[in-house]
Write a structure and sequence with these properties.
By secondary structure, the protein is an alpha+beta fold. The protein has one domain: Umud Fragment, subunit A, CATH 2.10.109. It contains 2 helices and 13 strands, in the order αβββββββββαββββ. Strands 1, 2, 3, 4, 9, 10, 11 and 12 form an 8-stranded antiparallel sheet that branches. Strands 8-5-6-7-13 form a 5-stranded antiparallel sheet, with no helix packed on it. A hairpin with a 5-residue loop joins strand 11 and strand 12. The chain is elongated, with a radius of gyration of 20 Å. The termini are far apart. The relative contact order is 0.22.
Length: 179
């Protein structure tokens, strides 16, 4: 093989490996996601870009307060949703007197910015399921309307919003329970 052909073959191999590695990273490790809804304002906003970790839930279960990307029950096309984990498997969630309760303890939700939660009756979270809610509760289509969500429908955990830069925020678990 002459030198010119060897050079072309080397470049084709390099480009193929780069595309393959990029595909693998996006498919199994991390993926950008564009926010489509206003249900997570004032944490993230429509058209914000967030980076989604698709790997960590293979090693541990979702945690209360995690912001996740998931497919809601019965939806398999279009765009997945983004919501915050409120109730974990085996817990009971309810809203009364304007506050969220998990197993009878008040949830500390600093991201709500004065929103008063309308009451709803105690809702048990079955094993393998999560109770999810948007931070913009007034407009959020979430577990209050479509029920609990299977952990198998999770795409990944939103790690941070990165675009536009003025909306940069690290998305970490922020929901605690009163003692």
């Amino acid at each position: 093989m002459n030198k010119a052909i060897r050079e072309v073959v080397d470049w084709v191999i390099i480009i193929a490996v780069a595309f393959g590695a990029s595909y693998a990273l996006r498919h199994w490790v991390v993926q950008p996601y564009r926010i489509q809804m206003s249900s997570m304002e004032t944490t993230v906003f429509p058209d914000d870009l967030v980076m989604v970790d698709k790997l960590s839930y293979h090693f541990h279960q979702p945690r209360r307060g995690d912001v996740i990307i998931f497919w809601p029950p019965g939806v398999t096309t279009g765009d997945p949703y983004i919501k915050r984990v409120i109730g974990l498997p085996g817990e009971t969630v309810e809203a009364k007197d304007g506050k969220m309760y998990v197993d009878g303890k008040v949830a500390d939700e600093p991201y709500l910015h004065g929103y008063v939660m309308p009451d709803f009756s105690p809702t048990p979270v079955p094993q393998g399921q999560l109770f999810l809610m948007g931070d913009n509760r007034a407009v959020s289509l979430d577990s209050r309307s479509f029920g609990t969500v299977s952990t198998s429908s999770i795409v990944g955990r939103a790690m941070f919003a990165y675009w536009p830069l003025k909306h940069f925020v690290v998305l970490r678990a922020q929901t605690g329970l009163a003692q």
